[in-house]
Structures are given as structure tokens and as C-alpha cells.
Design goal:
The complex is a heterotetramer of chains A (332), B (251), C (287) and D (390). In chain A, 74% of the residues lie in helices and 0% in strands. The radius of gyration of chain A is 20 Å and the shape is globular. Chain A has a single domain, classed as Orthogonal Bundle (ABC transporter involved in vitamin B12 uptake, BtuC), CATH 1.10.3470. Chain A is mainly α. In chain B, 33% of the residues lie in helices and 23% in strands. With 251 residues, chain B is α/β, with parallel strands linked by helices. In chain B, the strands form 2 sheets. In chain B, strands 7-8-9-4-10-11 form a 6-stranded mixed β-sheet, sandwiched between helices. In chain B, strands 1, 2, 3, 5 and 6 form a 5-stranded antiparallel β-sheet that branches. Chain C has one domain: ABC transporter involved in vitamin B12 uptake, BtuC. A two-stranded antiparallel sheet of chain C has the order 1-2. In chain C, helix 1 runs parallel beside helix 5, helix 1 runs antiparallel to helix 11 and helix 6 packs across helix 8. Chain D has 390 residues and is of the alpha/beta class. Helix content of chain D is 38%, strand content 24%. Classes of the chains: A mainly alpha (332), B alpha/beta (251), C mainly alpha (287), D alpha/beta (390). Chains in contact: A-B, A-C, A-D, C-D.
């Protein structure tokens, strides 16, 4: 804190410094390449972590930045997943265009739902998102002629990426693809959160009454960010479909909505890297714990969550930031 | 006489059987400093809430210039120049002062919808926000999160946020509430130095300040306007004395 | 026609009462103390397992297990409150959710470890089984019992919170902690007892629910959604609201399944969304 | 190797660590050990463990190593990933487990791609075995049981039946299979309903069924906590199973469900391929050993796992320890053996299970409720695949 407030006379410099890439960020993204070299047999897991991280990032835009808690975000993930799957099933297996269509359709759904969402706050908002998510689950189950119902959608086959790279058993293509998409959408989100719009979102999170008192168009902001978030979630769902060539009701179920919320809060909501770190820690922990004991892995995961809340409030990144700050102020 | 900048006609508001506003008629000309006084529970904050649209009146109309704004939402009224501050700090705790004022400027200019350009690309917005903060002596702390500012600085930030919207009419709800008297001079200096294009209505309990700042005074009691006049008229009015002296035991 | 409607109302009402017992504790702790306790159904599960264990292994009569289910779940909530919840009363909703989901995970794994993953059978005493036949309709004895029991519980609960000294202390502590402390109220103690009460009621609900819905480790999650629906539709902190919401949802669920089985799964969510669109704070919510 | 990446071939040297694992055969066991279907995984796992305990962990000179992985419920993406991982990371030669249809379908892709032998120990939708030429099934198919039950129901004298099924894939299959068997024989379906997958209170559905006045009510339920709830609701509705016959697939009268139902369950008729009460010397020994090991009775999941391991062991014996997918699947085609469930075999054409379907009635034997077999249909193949155009 002391560093920040040290007599910055020019406001431009200060904000520019905030927007600049920190060396830790560069290191983080370089580290995402390590699985190719160090753990090539974990690439399938790595690609699913990247997809989950993207999904968590989409939730972070509405929850971490605009303060909209959602327990039904799987609706968009699932909508994108089914869209991507159906396009492929109907004979168009080209991944990139499929992903765009998945994003677009999830965005349309998100835009429509945003008119309901923007009207509510607090528990009512949570229950609305939950209710709409569960409704979509039931629709997907009922419409088994379209979605394959509980058996899952059959007949999803992707063409090679860019006409060259097949989706292989080891997950090289899957991870490369998921990682690039994650990185691009991360750049987009980073740009968004550093924009005037991003500032307005934080304003909505911090104080909606004050937003009205400065004449802000909060509801239209909420609709915009909800739509963008839905589109990104749809991309994540589409990626899952394309890299695994399967779609099931699991993509829209309550568990997925709850998991992504846990992942984001675990990592630290309101920080772009929160969802990414949360996804890595949660999924690696689950993979390792369930490898050790497939039956009772819930136990150590539960203890992990409890410990994070007790010792690192505001998620792992939030807690670390506080520790670093207090360490800095002590060392000065 | 030209059209008043802000006027109301016959505003009524009840909460159940409790009358909080009854037949409120005001007309504020451009540039005038109005004080709104009255004992606790007189309905002063309610009136501000009604005017700014945080509450809807049961009956009556509100005009900003010639335009009726009775049915507009609070944010629409703000964009037309009708702006308020809050008696209890209503700020963005985790935004820096500069970010908060920048946000208000962006909203005014319609830039807040832009999500593809970084905020650093808006040089003139930052300059404007910074100059508002400078004028309110907040520049040295502008990069601190709001929650870390001193209480008096937060009160100033309330005004800074309102100014960033370029108000025509500014409603200040006890701007110095909670600020020790010897520290409130900065605040009132700021209010005094506001542009004469801005019409100001402020709620204040300290009569010394009221009489020093206001060019006209409205006295409210029990949800009604008791009397309106110049400071001298109000000081001489026996009904006001009755309310403030005789009514002391109500307080 | 009329008798079938009557039967449906009866079944739905009884199911609603079950939802009421499971939810009312959460409504109190979430509404009055602002603590997001997603582990509420874990407490119900504790009550359920206590009842089953005492009946199947120790041979206790069903009725004797109910107070134990209440006390056991209450004891667990006191421990949780002391160790984990109290430091987090001022934390964000999200931290509270994350903590309590962690507790749910731990409880599921623990239950699976102790009792296995199979569902546990429950046998009620004969006098609670079967049904009375009236107008050619069958009215289940256990459902009748559930309705009566829940009515008694809600009356006791409402009168405790509205008319006793303890109730006044709870409301004072919730409204303004500092002032309550100033008045010499042991706020920590009051909160602990309120939590214990909420948890105990959940345990009781769990014990009573297993005959109708069964019991296995996934119980802690399976009912969470329903309980949240009841609480939000009823309005936070309102016992009467929770009662009405539970009844409404129970009856509309039953009626929907009987008259329109093809939309059975949608109905409860649609009802919730419709009610919240109409009254965002719930039927009896103040905020 | 057609689908294995062309461009990144150089990196592929990391793959297939099984090259050095010649002294052992690794079996990746992918199923749900946690979540809603945790008990399924537990019981399949128990069946596997018991078989290995009885027959040793070495066959044809190879040590059998299990690699268990938790699927955590309906999650084909996870099933697919885990299957890929046990092959590429852990070097598994055989895929086994698979409790749920979507998961099995997703893993089938992996089996087909990697040419790995796959033993489906539970998932019961007919189509699954067509998805990989290296897959064998040791459980049952929904069509196999329920079409037989439909035909049998008409033969036993029922004419008007109401069907009530869980509203998801297997439930729809059960409904279709029973209705086909029953209607082809000449019966009439007087009404039908599908209840939500997570349904808890069954009173309204059973009331509706009762109000249709059928001779029998057919119920398809996927196990879990629902059967006991259904049994209790049947009794509470005043439906007498001795007058209005209650029919269903065996999950309806699982051991735990019967304990929960109590005497309400008496008289329910189910079609199934296995019960711990099946009367044979082989089964008696199996049940005793199982109880000694796990302190509970085996069920259809256990026997799916047990017979699945049998298929793996016998196939490895035939191939002399060669764990190649092609070799193993050829070894297992047409294999016949005496299982705790009775005689069973693997259809050489479809690689699906051929077995006896038992018709059982719930009776009280020695104070406990059990399923007593009183009729059976022998050598039943999966009728759905038999009708499929070749």
C-alpha cells in the first residue's frame, strides 16, 4: 500500500502501471506450457483444467467484478456444449466455427436471461439463477430426441483442427487448442476489466445505490456483462464437447454450477487469475486425492476448502495478496 | 420570473398511516443556495428521496425546468442534471478515489459502455477527474482505496462524485454529518465555491452554517413545508421559533 | 373428483410439512443471523443417521430416537458454530458458502466411511404404517402424523421466538448486536443456542424424512436445493413464511405430479421463479 | 493409428509406457466411487476384489494390477479423460468398470481408438456394445430383462397394465421394452407416466396409476433411495400387490429396498438376472465368501464385476497373457461359464451377455423378505440388437 500511494502526481502513470503486465503473469503463462514437457501424460487433465479455468473466468466477470452471484452458470456452459455437439452431429465438424456458433448461441441465451437477472440481487438472484439453471437441465433431459437425454449426445465427431491436427488420445491437440482459446479470452477479459466498462462493473459490485446516484446505466451494464460471460461460458462448454467428443446432461447440472462457484471462490473472486488458480488447485487436488482413494476423496477436498476460508479469506489469491501486503509493510 | 430549475407540485407520500410528505410545493430558481431545515423526522431526507426518484410519490409532480420527471428513474434524473449526495457515506469502498470519480465522469459521457478500450486511453477523462479531486483537496490521496480515506475526505468524495456528473441542481443531504465542527470548514468552503450555475439545496442542522451559506431557507415540520423565506425572514418567524424552541421536547 | 383433490391436498400438505421441518432452521439462521449455512442438510443427515442407528442397532423405538436426533444434530451445530462459524460471522457470503460446502464434502465422506454408500433401511412401528380409508381415498397414517407433528413444532417455535424472553433476546441480538451487548445480553450464547435450535430442527426433519425419501450420504446435497427454494420463497427469517412456502410447494408439487405428470419436474422451479418475480423478497420477506 | 496425431508424432515417444510393463496386465477401473452412484462403484469393486482374492492376482504368468479411478456420477467427459489417462499415463491394457451408460459410451470411443479390451460391468443400454469392437458386457441389458417381463406378464394373465418409469434414458428403454413385450403378446397399456429423475415423493404418481384401474402396474426405477419410497407409497395408497400386480426390473426389490419397504413389498414381481437368493451351489459359495469379506450381500453390481473379472482372467488364459485388444476380444467371444447368477455366455456376434432372466416374487422366508424365483426364461439375448439391421 505504501508503495502505491507514494506521491503519484500523475494519475495516468498510476493506472498505466496497474494495467502493465507483471512478471508473475508472464511467468504464469509460460508455466502453462510446462505440461507439454514435464507431464505429457497429464495433457487430457490439463486441457480439462484449461476449460474449467475458462468457465471460472466467465463466472468471475459477473461474480467477481459485477457482484452477480450465480448458481446456474452451467446453463450457458451446457448450452454451448450442446450447440457445439449438435452442429458436429449434424455434419459440420469444423472446430473453430463450431466454437463461434456455440459462443453466439450461449450469448443469445445469456442476453435473454439477463433481462430477468438484472432485476434481482442477493438470495433472490441466486435462487433465480439456480431455478433457471435447473429448468434448463430438465429441458435438456426432456428433449432427449434432440440431446440424447441421459444417455448423452451420440455421434459427435470433430474434424482436425485447422484441417491439420486431429484430436488425439494423448490430448496434445486438445490442450494446445484449449490453452490458446483460454489465453485469447483471458486477454479479452483483461482488456474488459481495465476498460471504463470494467470500472463500472466494479462500481455495481461495490455500491448499486451510488451507481444510480451518479446516473449509471447499471442494468444495461449488467445485461452486457452477463451476455459476454454467457458467451465465454458457452465457449468453455463448446471446448469440452469438441475435445472430448461427448456431451451429457452433466454439462448443465447443478453440480457443475456449484463446482465452478467453489473453484472461483477458492482461487479468489474479483481477480482474473482467481478462477485459473482455483481450477488448477481444485482439479489437481481432486485428481490426486481420488487417485489415492477414489471413495473418500471428498474428505480432503472439504478440509482444503475449510482451511482456505479459515486461513486465506477471499480465496487463495485474496489471502496471498493480504499476506504479501502485510509482509511488505512490516519490512519497511 | 423565469422558469424555476426545480419545482414540485402537491407531492404526497405516506408509509401506511404515517404521513412523510404532504402537499410539498417548492420552486428553486437557478443558482440559488437553499437550506432545508426542520426537526428530526420532519421528512427532509424523504423529500430528497422523492425528488431524486429513490422514492415514488403517491400524488404530485416533479419538474426539472419544463420537463416533468415524476416517473423517471433516479439515474435518468441524474443524467438530466438532478444530483444528490448521501447523509451516510454511500461510496465505493474498494475503488480508489480517482477510479470512483473517473467512473462518474465516464458514466456522464457515456464512455462506461466501452469495454474494448483500456481506461488509460481516456486521457481527458482522467484529467477531468483529477482536477475535480484537486479542487476538493483530494488529489494527494486519489490513488488510495476509498475505505482507507479519513472520514472527512470521504465526505468530500461524496461531493466530488456528485460534481463529476455536472449537476444543474445539487441536493446535499447533511454534507457535514459526523464531521467535527472544527474540521468542517473545508467542506463548507467547497460548497461556497461551487459554480453559480448550480442550484444547491442542502440539509443542515447547524444554524450558524445555514445562515452563513443559504440565500433562502425552507423549514419542514411533520412532512409539510412550514415556511420558506430569506434567512432574515426565517429568523424572525415566530412559528419557526415555536418549532425549534417549543418543539425541542419532540426531538 | 372432489375426493381425489382432497387426497392430493393431503399428500401435498404432508410433503410440504416435511420440507418445512427441513428448512425452518436454515430460515432462522440465514434470515436472522445472516449466515449462509449450506451445510444445513448435513445436519439433517446427522439426525437421520442417529435415528437409523438407534433403531436398527440399538433397537430403540422410533419415537425415542426423535429427541436424540434433535439433540445430536444440535450438538454438532454447536461444535460447528464454536469452531468454524463464529470467526466468520462478518465474512462475505462467498466465504461462508465455501466453508459450509467444505463441511458438506467432509460430512458426505464421513457418512460414506461410517455407514457405507448403501441406503439404510428404516422400519417404522406398525401403528405408523398403512392408511385410513375415507371416501375411497387412502390417507397415510405417517403423513397424518407428520402434519400433526409439524403443526405442533411450528406453534412451539413461533411462540418461543415471539413471546419468550429468549425470543426477545434473539431478536434484539440480531437487530443490533452492540446494543444487545449493552443491555447485558450474552450475544454469543444466544447465537450459539439459535444455531443449535436450527440444527436440531434440521436433525429432527432428517429423522422424520427418511421414511418417505430414504437416507444415504448424498442426502446432504440432494435436499439442499429444495430447502433453499423453500427458504427463499417463504422470505428470509420468517417462520410463517417458511411454513406457507413449504405447504405451497408441497401441494403444487403433488398436484402437478398427479394432474400433469409430464411437467412434474419443472413445476417446483416454475412456481419458485413466478413467486420470486412477483415478490423478490419472498412471500413474507421484509427485505 | 488413424486418429493419433500426425503432426506431433515426435512427442508421441512419451506415450505407451506399457511397453516396459510386460510382467503385469494393468486394468483401469473407471466408475463412480463417489456421489449419487457411489454404492454402484463400491459393489462392482467388491465383486472385482473377491474374484481376485479367490483366483489369485496372477494369471497366465501376468500379475493383474488394478488402477481404480473415480468417475463421480454422470460425466462422460470425465470417463473419457480417465480412460485416456489410464491408458496413456498408467499404461493400462484393459478398461473395466463403467457404471453408467453415458460414461460407457464415451469410454467406448477410447477403447475403439486405442484398440483396448473393454469390459462393461454394468451400464445396461443396448447400444453401448456397438460402439467399440473390443467391448464385452457382463451385466445385462434393459431390453433383455423387460421385454421378457412384458411377454411373461401377458402369459401370467394380466391384460391391462399401467407403466411408471423414471424420466431418463434407461427408464424410457424399460418402458419401451416392457410395452413391446406386453403389447406384442396382446396386452393393453392403460396409461403411463414418467417421473422426474430426482423425484422423492411418489404418492401422487401411484395415486394416478391406481385411479387408472389396471390389473398391474409396471415400475422402472434406477435403484438408490427411490425403491423403498415407492414400496411405502404403494402400501400407503392401499394398493394390494396380490390383487393389482406390481411389476418391475429387479432394482425395485433390492435387498435394501425390501428392508425399507417391509411387508409392503410382499408380492411384487420382478425380472432380473441375479439375486443373492438364487439357489445354486455356486451362488451359495459366492454369497458366503462375499459376506465374509465385505459384511454384506452381493447384488447385481457385484456379480457384474465378478463375472467381468472372470471374462478378463479366462481371456488372458486363452491368449497366454497377451493383453492385446484384438486377441482378448476374440478369446472372449462365445465364452460360456457358470456364474453365481447361473449359466451365462458371450454372444460371439454382439459381444453382449446371454443369460437366464428370472421371474421372482417377494416372499417372506424365515422372517426376511427375499426375491423367490418362480419362473425363468433361458438363454435370452439382447432383443434390441437382434432386431437391429445387420
Amino acid at each position: 500500500m505504501a508503495v502505491m500511494s507514494s506521491a503519484v502526481t500523475n494519475p495516468h502513470q498510476f493506472l498505466q502501471a496497474q494495467n502493465r503486465w507483471h512478471w508473475i503473469e508472464v511467468a504464469f503463462w509460460l508455466a502453462t506450457l510446462l505440461p507439454f514437457v514435464l507431464t505429457p501424460s497429464y495433457l487430457s487433465l490439463a486441457s480439462q483444467i484449461a476449460i474449467t479455468a475458462l468457465f471460472a473466468l466467465s463466472l468471475d466477470l459477473i461474480l467477481g467484478y459485477a457482484g452477480i452471484v450465480s448458481l446456474g452458470h452451467a446453463a450457458f456452459f451446457g448450452f454451448g456444449a450442446y450447440t457445439a455437439g449438435l452442429i458436429s452431429k449434424w455434419g459440420w465438424g469444423e472446430p473453430l466455427s463450431g466454437l463461434l456458433i456455440a459462443a453466439f448461441s450461449a450469448a443469445v441465451l445469456g442476453y435473454l436471461m439477463s433481462f430477468i437477472i438484472a432485476r434481482f440481487r442477493h438470495l433472490t438472484l441466486i435462487m433465480m439463477t439456480l431455478g433457471l439453471g435447473l429448468l434448463l437441465f430438465e429441458v435438456a433431459n426432456k428433449a432427449s430426441w434432440l440431446t440424447g437425454g441421459a444417455d448423452g449426445l451420440q455421434g459427435v465427431h470433430m474434424w482436425p483442427l485447422l484441417g491439420m491436427f486431429r484430436f488425439d488420445l494423448y490430448g496434445y491437440t486438445a490442450y494446445t487448442y484449449a490453452l490458446i482459446v483460454l489465453f485469447l479470452l483471458f486477454l479479452l477479459s483483461r482488456r474488459l476489466t481495465n476498460s471504463p466498462f470494467g470500472l463500472a462493473l466494479r462500481g455495481i459490485r461495490e455500491n448499486l445505490t451510488r451507481m444510480r446516484a451518479i446516473g449509471a446505466t447499471s442494468r444495461s451494464h449488467i445485461r452486457t456483462v452477463y451476455t459476454i460471460s454467457a458467451a465465454i461460458a458457452g465457449v468453455a462448454g463448446g471446448l469440452l464437447t469438441q475435445t472430448t467428443e461427448t456431451v451429457s446432461l452433466g454439462v448443465v447440472d447443478f453440480q457443475r454450477s456449484a463446482d465452478v462457484l467453489v473453484i472461483l471462490v477458492l482461487g479468489g473472486a474479483g481477480r482474473l487469475y482467481g478462477g485459473l488458480i482455483g481450477a488448477i488447485i481444485f482439479m489437481v487436488a481432486r485428481d490426486q486425492f481420488s487417485g489415492i482413494n477414489p471413495q473418500y476423496w471428498y474428505f480432503p477436498i472439504g478440509v482444503l476448502l475449510i482451511a482456505v476460508v479459515m486461513f486465506l479469506p477471499n480465496g487463495i489469491l485474496g489471502g496471498l495478496a493480504r499476506l504479501v501486503a502485510s509482509w511488505r509493510s512490516r519490512s519497511q | 420570473m423565469s422558469t424555476p430549475v426545480l419545482s414540485t407540485r402537491g407531492l404526497d407520500k405516506n408509509f401506511g398511516s404515517l404521513v412523510v410528505a404532504k402537499d410539498i410545493e417548492i420552486a428553486l430558481p437557478k443558482g440559488v443556495r437553499y437550506a432545508l431545515i426542520g426537526p428530526n423526522g420532519a421528512g427532509k431526507t424523504t423529500l430528497i428521496n422523492l425528488i431524486t426518484g429513490m422514492l415514488q410519490p403517491d400524488v404530485g409532480q416533479i419538474f426539472l425546468g419544463d420537463e416533468e420527471i415524476t416517473r423517471l428513474g433516479p439515474e435518468q434524473r441524474v443524467r438530466r442534471g438532478l444530483v444528490r449526495t448521501f447523509q451516510i457515506n454511500t461510496l465505493f469502498p474498494n475503488l480508489t478515489a480517482l477510479e470512483a470519480v473517473t467512473l462518474a465522469v465516464c458514466e456522464r459521457r457515456g464512455d462506461a459502455k466501452t469495454w474494448w478500450r483500456p481506461i488509460t486511453a481516456y486521457g481527458e477523462v482522467l484529467d477531468e477527474a483529477y482536477s475535480i479531486l484537486t479542487s476538493l483537496l483530494l488529489a494527494p490521496v486519489c490513488n488510495r482505496p476509498t475505505r482507507e480515506l479519513a472520514y472527512g475526505q470521504q465526505r468530500l468524495l461524496e461531493i466530488a462524485l456528485a460534481l463529476a456528473t455536472r449537476p444543474k441542481v445539487l441536493l446535499l443531504d447533511e454534507p457535514a454529518a459526523g464531521v467535527p465542527r472544527d474540521e468542517s470548514s473545508e467542506l463548507f468552503a467547497a460548497i461556497t465555491s461551487l459554480s453559480q450555475d448550480i442550484t444547491v439545496l442542502f440539509i443542515e442542522h447547524d444554524m450558524n452554517i445555514v445562515f452563513k451559506l443559504a440565500s433562502r431557507i425552507i423549514v419542514m415540520v411533520g412532512g409539510r413545508i412550514l415556511v420558506e423565506g430569506t434567512p432574515a425572514e426565517i429568523a424572525a418567524d415566530p412559528r419557526v421559533r415555536e418549532v425549534y424552541l417549543g418543539g425541542a421536547h419532540h426531538g | 373428483m372432489i375426493t381425489s383433490l382432497l387426497g392430493i391436498l393431503f399428500d401435498g400438505f404432508a410433503y410440504g410439512m416435511l420440507l418445512f421441518l427441513l428448512s425452518v432452521g436454515l430460515s432462522v439462521t440465514l434470515g436472522m443471523m445472516n449466515f449462509v449455512n449450506l451445510a444445513h442438510c448435513s445436519l439433517a443427515m446427522v439426525g437421520g443417521y442417529i435415528a437409523v442407528t438407534l433403531m436398527n442397532r440399538a433397537g430403540w423405538p422410533f419415537f425415542a430416537t426423535l429427541p436424540m436426533a434433535f439433540l445430536g444434530a444440535a450438538a454438532v451445530s454447536i461444535v460447528l458454530e464454536r469452531l468454524l462459524y463464529r470467526p466468520l460471522y462478518r465474512a462475505t457470503d462467498l466465504d461462508q458458502s465455501l466453508l459450509t460446502i467444505g463441511i458438506v464434502f467432509v460430512s458426505i465422506a464421513t457418512a460414506a466411511y461410517i455407514y457405507g454408500t448403501a441406503q439404510l433401511p428404516v422400519q417404522l412401528p406398525d401403528y405408523l404404517r398403512g392408511s385410513y380409508q375415507v371416501f375411497g381415498r387412502n390417507f397415510g397414517v405417517y403423513r397424518l402424523f407428520l402434519i400433526g407433528f409439524s403443526l405442533v413444532i411450528s406453534i412451539v417455535l413461533v411462540s418461543t421466538l415471539e413471546y419468550t424472553r429468549f425470543g426477545a433476546q434473539v431478536r434484539a441480538a440480531v437487530d443490533n448486536q452492540r446494543m444487545a451487548r449493552g443491555l447485558g445480553i450474552d450475544v454469543n450464547g444466544v447465537f450459539a443456542i439459535t444455531f443449535a435450535l436450527g440444527g436440531g430442527l434440521a436433525g429432527l426433519g432428517g429423522a422424520l424424512a427418511i421414511d418417505i425419501v430414504g437416507l444415504d450420504p448424498s442426502f446432504a446435497f440432494a435436499y439442499l436445493v429444495y430447502v433453499l427454494i423453500v427458504v427463499s420463497v417463504g422470505g428470509l427469517g420468517s417462520i410463517g413464511g417458511t411454513f406457507v412456502a413449504a405447504m405451497l410447494l408441497g401441494i403444487s408439487d403433488s398436484a402437478g405430479k398427479y394432474y400433469f405428470p409430464q411437467v412434474g419436474a419443472f413445476l417446483i422451479y416454475l412456481v419458485m421463479i413466478a413467486i420470486l418475480m412477483w415478490r423478490p423478497a419472498g412471500l413474507f420477506g421484509k427485505r | 493409428m488413424k486418429r493419433i496425431l500426425a503432426g506431433l508424432g515426435a512427442i508421441a515417444m512419451f506415450a505407451m509406457p506399457s511397453a516396459y510393463a510386460q510382467q503385469s496386465v494393468k486394468v483401469g477401473v473407471v466408475m463412480s466411487y463417489s456421489g449419487q452412484f457411489a454404492d454402484t462403484g463400491t459393489q462392482i469393486g467388491n465383486g472385482i476384489k473377491l474374484y481376485m482374492k479367490e483366483h489369485g492376482d496372477t494369471v497366465a504368468g501376468k500379475k493383474i494390477e488394478l488402477i481404480p479411478r473415480d468417475n463421480g456420477g454422470i460425466a462422460p467427459d470425465v470417463a473419457k479423460r480417465l480412460s485416456q489417462e489410464v491408458i496413456v499415463r498408467d499404461g493400462a491394457d484393459i478398461l473395466a468398470g463403467f457404471d453408467l451408460t453415458p460414461n460407457a459410451l464415451a469410454a467406448a470411443d477410447v477403447s475403439a481408438q486405442a484398440k483396448k479390451f473393454m469390459v462393461n460391468m454394468n451400464a445396461a443400454t443396448s447400444v453401448i456394445t456397438t460402439k467399440s469392437p473390443y467391448m464385452v458386457r457382463t451385466s445385462f441389458t434393459v431390453w433383455q430383462l423387460n421385454e421378457s417381463l412384458g411377454t411373461w406378464a401377458y402369459k401370467s394373465g394380466l391384460r391391462k397394465v399401467y407403466t411408471l418409469v423414471s424420466d431418463f434414458g434407461p427408464g424410457h428403454d424399460g418402458e419401451a421394452a416392457f410395452q413391446k413385450g406386453f403389447k406384442d403378446a396382446g396386452g393393453e397399456i392403460v396409461g403411463s407416466a414418467r417421473y422426474p429423475v430426482a423425484n422423492q415423493d411418489f404418492a401422487p404418481f401411484l395415486q394416478r396409476a391406481k385411479d387408472a384401474n389396471p390389473d398391474g402396474i409396471y415400475i422402472w426405477v434406477p435403484g438408490g433411495t427411490q425403491p423403498a419410497a415407492i414400496g411405502k407409497a404403494i402400501a400407503e395408497r392401499g394398493i394390494d400387490p396380490t390383487k393389482t400386480k406390481i411389476l418391475g426390473q429387479g432394482e425395485l426389490t433390492f435387498e435394501d429396498s425390501l428392508k425399507g419397504m417391509g411387508d409392503a413389498g410382499l408380492g411384487i414381481i420382478t425380472a432380473f438376472h441375479y439375486d443373492y437368493n438364487h439357489q445354486s451351489a455356486k451362488n451359495k459359495a459366492f454369497v458366503t465368501a462375499y459376506n465374509a469379506e465385505f459384511k454384506r450381500n452381493p447384488d447385481m453390481f457385484s456379480v457384474g464385476g465378478y463375472d467381468g473379472m472372470h471374462a478378463i482372467y479366462e481371456a488372458l488364459k486363452k491368449t497366454n497373457g497377451n493383453a492385446d485388444g484384438e486377441a482378448l476380444i476374440n478369446a472372449v467371444k462365445g465364452m460360456k461359464w457358470e456364474s453365481p447368477r447361473g449359466p451365462m455366455s458371450i454372444d460371439p456376434e454382439t459381444r453382449d451377455v446371454v443369460q437366464t432372466v428370472y421371474i421372482r416374487r417377494v416372499e417372506k422366508v424365515g422372517g426376511a423378505l427375499v426375491n423367490v424365483e418362480f419362473d425363468k426364461v433361458e438363454n435370452v439375448k439382447d432383443p434390441w440388437k437382434a432386431r437391429m439391421p445387420k
